[in-house]
Amino acid sequence: MKKETKIRKGTSSRKTSETDIAVELELLKAAESIIGTGVPFFDHMLSAMARHGRLKLNLKCVGDVEIDDHHSVEDTGICLGEALKEALGEKRGIHRFGEASAPMDDALATVSLDLSGRAFFKYTGPPMQGQVGKYSEELTIEFLRAFADNGGINLHVQVTCGDNRHHIHEAVFKALGLALRRAVEIDPLLEGVVPSTKGTIS
After folding, report:
1. Which residues share a beta bridge with 117?
2. Is residue 119 part of a domain?
3. Average pLDDT of 150-163?
4. Is residue 116 part of a domain?
5. Which of 20, 47, 61, 149 is the most buried (most CB within 10 A)?
6. What CATH number does the domain containing 67 carry?
7. Which domain does 149 fall in, by range?
8. Averaged pLDDT, 195-200
């Protein structure tokens, strides 16, 4: 039987007229992440995701934040998705599916995902149309969509309740980290088998 592929690190970079990004990702690593996107609230959210997902992130983005935060947030999602895909390799032995709920005081978010290689994103909950300080709420949706598209993830995010906008976003990112942690873990019962009836996850 083919042994499990031991690829658990991934990198990605992207340089355009709008952003210059470099990402290094290591799965299931209990270590501090270094995150700097130029968007402080987004950094806080990514740090929460990384901590609860046991993801070691070294992420640096220099973007045109003097114009808008949109490019930096979306392009970070692109690069992070690409780095995750590389870190998973052939996906041998992983659980593949992950689901988690995270309460944050008044807010509750649930994330269900499948590392299927087929991208899909669905958000269900109150509209993300306001501001958290200087952060535009719709940027969280843009990040999640870009992450799912470039990571090949079937990603469903549901916010059940919440009044405080900060708490809502933080619950989403924490739930995403927890669900990813479950999905990327190695299942000892799979013994290096690709978790698909097709024998491959593209």
Report:
1. none
2. yes
3. 97
4. yes
5. 61
6. 3.30.230.40
7. 9-184
8. 66
Predicted confidence (pLDDT) per residue in 95-132, tens digit: 999 999 999 999 999 999 999 999 999 999 999 999 99
Q: What share of the chain is helix, strand, coil (3-state, %, to 5)?
A: 35, 30, 35
Q: How far apart are CA 96 and CA 197, in angstroms?
A: 13
**195 part of a folded domain:** no
Percent of the chain's residues with pLDDT above 90: 84
> How far apart, in whole angstroms, are the C-alpha atoms of residue 85 and residue 95?
15
**Cβ-contact 190, 119 below 8 angstroms:** no
CA atoms within 13 A on the CB side of 66: 1
Residue 66 to residue 153: CA distance in whole angstroms: 31
- How many domains is the chain built from? 1
Q: Which tens digits make up the pLDDT trace of 27-75?
A: 998 789 999 999 999 999 999 999 999 999 999 999 999 999 999 999 9
> Please, are residues 102 and 28 in contact by the beta-carbon 8 Å criterion?
no
The predicted-structure confidence for 169-186, as pLDDT tens digits, reads as follows 999 999 999 999 999 999
d(CA 192, CA 3): 5
Bridge partners of residue 113, in order along the sequence: 98, 155
